[in-house]
Amino acid sequence: MSSNRFLLSALAILFIGNCAEALDMESAKEQPCFNITRTVPLDLNWVGTIKTLYYPLMSRLDLYRSSANMLNKSPNDINEATVYYDSCFRWNLYTNGSITGRGFNGLSREYKTKLVVPTMEKFEFSPVEGKNYGYSGLKYTTMTDNKTFLFTPFCTDDGEMTWGLGTISPTISQDLIKAAHEHAESLGFKREYFTEIRYDRCNFESVDYTSDNQDNEIDGTTTVTSA
Prior knowledge:
The chain is α+β, with helices and mostly antiparallel strands. 26% of the residues lie in helices and 26% in strands. Strand 3 (98-103) and strand 4 (107-115) form a beta hairpin.
């Protein structure tokens, strides 16, 4: 009898521990989609030169959902620490509008885009196939320098609002972090939902998807256009 109690206690502790570490999608939901009234155009000549985008800054829900989609797992089966330190997200852009998302030590997933506005101020984004963990919808461009970064709020198809900062380098300055956070707050996003991906542990060469972008740190001092 005592051995059964011990086994049940051990299982209960293990269950509680796993739940505590799993992604909690509900707690990451910040607010329903809201109207983005002002957007900014992207320089399509610059966009055409981008081979790879990193996303070092984003909302918590954006990180959780992009991770679930890349891993093709239920959020309940994903360790929270993994998404911050092992996701290593990179997005390869192609001229036909397709995007390959890469991360988690060599995993990849195909996405497609459809322009709503020709200058990419608004565009639809969705996975090509497979189960979708809430990572499709309408993206907006609301801030960019048309050289090194773009800020994109994201209204998902199930009515949740997220955001992300795409950059041509995984390393960005404190000035750009500050500017991105201030812009997010100006749109109505809350600081307690801000997250940051750690790229310092990523070994891109070992999984054979090196970037064709410049590897210089982004200083955030160039001219910025914001809505």
